[in-house]
Amino acid sequence: MKEIRTEDAVGHILCHDITQIIKDKKKGVLFSKGHIVKEEDIPLLLSVGKEHLFVWEKKEGILHENEGADILYKICAGPSMHGTDVKEGKIELVADTDGVLKIRRDALLAVNSLGEMMIASRHGDFPVKKGDKLAGTRIIPLVIEKEKMDKAVEAAGPDPIFSILPYQFKKVGIVTTGSEVKKGLIQDTFTPVLKDKLAEYPTEVIGQTTPGDDKAQITADILAFIDQGADMVICSGGMSVDPDDRTPGGIRDTGARVVTYGAPVLPGAMLLIAYYEKDGKRIPILGLPGCVMYAKRTVFDLVLPRIMADDEIFAEEVAAYGEGGLCLNCKVCTFPNCGFGK
């Protein structure tokens, strides 16, 4: 930066804030760091005693914070999101659609490890809505070396750090197990909960069956829904390790690939996730434990958004739920704006 006469500063960029104090009326920033001085600014600057200013001196290989911010934004933003206007080296990313936020975490860490720049985001693998703020970026100093921004581009790689997987419409079949439900001994209170949660997404429930505890019938009902065009099958109940709980075996007997039976999440430890392959299509089959019926938030709330966005779930990702997998059952639930599942 260099010091120049205020009268000669038109077109230059301020390297520091200019404060204006008017007794009993005002105390605040008159012009912010990074402001480009205009002709009409000169009288105001002189009125606050600024006869000289420190301004940015343009040099080869040195970028202004706003130029660096634009580069940072470009390595961050994927489709279905936009950036806010750049201001003081800052740009925020905003969602243009509902879906699941995906983050290339290795790239995010690599860029943030470079220093003099930062990217802060909400948690990935969670649902976002159109208009939600996804991330904020900033160049820390007023100017930054172009070479450093080139390193950021290299560290991030060719793909955007952030992307949104939009939800896909799904036809859903529900298989309600348990002889007590089949025989009408108890009221089915599980299905209404499922339908309420599914209604938050683009879904159509194409049917419900009550095969009791007949493992072969559970298998047959799942396969029948798939033959009817179901994009997802949910089995409710009978997920414990007791000998008379037949749901896990019924799911396995379909020939589906079981990703996990069990999750380090409370409520929801007995979750089963499987995928059935048909005609090149991957159809999720879920075995849901009974806690989904009565607990406000469970493992189902963690996996359902990803399934609705066709985001394949892997066993190691479920295992990672262990840290943050304990729901605290707060009196006022703020999920997903809490630590559950993160």
UniProtKB/TrEMBL annotation:
GO BP field: Mo-molybdopterin cofactor biosynthetic process
Cofactor dependence: Mg(2+)
Similarity field: Belongs to the MoeA family.
Function: Catalyzes the insertion of molybdate into adenylated molybdopterin with the concomitant release of AMP.
Pathways involved: Cofactor biosynthesis; molybdopterin biosynthesis
Database matches in InterPro entries: MoaB/Mog-like_dom_sf (IPR036425), MoaB/Mog_dom (IPR001453), MoeA-like (IPR038987)
Enzyme Commission code(s) on record: 2.10.1.1
GO annotations of cellular component type: cytosol
PANTHER family: MOLYBDOPTERIN BIOSYNTHESIS PROTEIN, MOLYBDOPTERIN MOLYBDENUMTRANSFERASE
MF (Gene Ontology): metal ion binding; molybdopterin molybdotransferase activity
Keywords: Magnesium, Metal-binding, Molybdenum, Molybdenum cofactor biosynthesis, Transferase
Protein known as: Molybdopterin molybdenumtransferase
SUPFAM superfamilies: Molybdenum cofactor biosynthesis proteins (SSF53218)
NAD recorded as keyword: no
Positions of the MoaB/Mog domain: 173-309
Catalytic activity of the protein: adenylyl-molybdopterin + molybdate = Mo-molybdopterin + AMP + H(+)
Keyword Transferase (UniProt): yes
